TrEMBL record:
Coiled coil: none annotated. The lineage of its organism: Eukaryota, Viridiplantae, Streptophyta, Embryophyta, Tracheophyta. Its EC number is 1.1.3.15. This is (S)-2-hydroxy-acid oxidase. Its cofactor is FMN. Belongs to the FMN-dependent alpha-hydroxy acid dehydrogenase family. Residues 1-316 form the FMN hydroxy acid dehydrogenase domain. The chain holds residues 1 to 319 of 396 of the full protein. Keywords: Oxidoreductase, Peroxisome. It comes from the Eukaryota. It is found in: Peroxisome.
Length: 319
């Protein structure tokens, strides 16, 4: 049941599959005879230096994967020297995670990530079938009263209805800005129009995301709309991407199409489920090592060397 909760997507899971498949349609165009004896992967996101352009996406309920939950993930993020975005629906409180390590944390601490694509919960049929019950949300303990671990069917829908205000809209970003000085990143942008609106309301960054295919099914794969968003933003703020990053070559492709960094969702949870903190570290280091090798073999010793001319889309008949 928990595996399905993590792995699954909305309805036909079309977007879930596309997120991965569209990366596979991009073919790399390496340059040879470049000095690649040193590969530099460190980058800076909104003033915070991270060891590689690979961050941890916000995903809920890490304690369903491992008893140490978000605390183990945060320690791995600190060791890897990257940013972990802590989910609002975490199974550990912000305070517990903050106390556990020195990782840069983008959640009411250094920045706020506003998830914009979840006015209501997407229909995840595996959760309904499995009668998936979410445990109490740690950050909302005592504030909402949802029956946890009942046998009446999945509680994910009532949970969401009680927590999320589906009237929240662009106008309300001004309110959010009025109550915090923290930079606000908007997560869930998939179109040029929304990227432009995000710029107008003063977003400090944009995350191109379809929520890992868990919200509206039949939205495009994130990698296929990245360039459109990057062009609309015009380098004014960082553009990040998540969805379907499974290899260092995927990270490279996202950077080639204009992302400043990527976020990783499910692979982190799988690492956590397998081996706790060590498992998350392993996943992050695998991606980084693969990126390093890809940069070397593609003739890109620095992140700035990775350009649009290093990747082309192949038509499906080429595959
Ligand atoms: C998510 N995601 C998510 N996003 C968010 O903004 N807040 C959240 O609480 C969650 N929770 C969540 C739980 C689980 C189990 C998954 C798999 C995903 C979406 C997440 O941040 C990210 O957009 C995707 O996971 C990226 O896709 P990949 O890397 O999983 O393919």
């Amino acid at each position: 049941m928990y595996y399905d909760f993590y792995a699954g997507g909305a309805e036909d899971e079309h977007t879930l599959k596309k997120n991965v498949q569209e990366f596979q349609r991009i073919i790399l165009q390496p340059r040879v005879l470049v000095d690649v004896s040193n590969i530099a992967m460190s980058t800076n996101i909104l003033g915070y230096t991270i060891s590689a352009p690979i961050m941890i996406a916000p995903t809920s309920m890490h304690k369903l994967a491992h008893p140490e939950g978000e605390l183990a993930t945060a320690r791995a993020a600190a060791e890897f020297n990257t940013i972990m975005i802590l989910s609002f629906s975490a199974s550990s409180s912000v305070e517990e995670v903050a106390a556990s390590c020195d990782a840069v944390r983008f959640f009411q601490l250094y920045a706020i990530v506003l998830t914009a694509d979840r006015p209501r919960r997407g229909r995840k049929e595996a959760d309904i079938k499995n009668k998936m019950n979410l445990p109490q949300l740690k950050n909302l303990e005592g504030l909402i009263s949802i029956e946890v671990f009942s046998d009446k069917g999945s509680n994910t829908k009532p949970y969401t209805n009680e927590i999320f205000d589906s009237s929240f809209c662009w106008r309300d970003i001004a309110w959010l800005k009025s109550i915090t000085n923290l930079p606000i990143l908007i997560k869930g942008i998939l179109t040029r129009e929304d990227a432009t609106k995000a710029m107008e309301v003063g977003a400090a960054g944009i995350i191109v995301s379809n929520h890992g295919g868990r919200q509206l099914d039949y939205t495009p794969a994130t990698i296929s709309v990245l360039e459109e968003v990057v062009q609309a933003v015009g380098r004014k703020v960082p553009v990040l991407l998540d969805g379907g990053i499974r290899r260092g070559t995927d990270v490279f492709k996202a950077l080639a199409l204009g992302a400043q960094a990527v976020l990783v969702g499910r692979p982190v949870i799988y690492g956590l489920a397998a081996k706790g903190e060590a498992g998350v570290r392993k996943v992050m280091h695998m991606l980084k090592d693969e990126l390093e090798l890809t940069m070397a073999l593609a003739g890109c010793p620095t992140l700035k060397d990775i350009s649009r001319s290093h990747g082309i889309s192949s038509s499906s008949s080429d595959l």
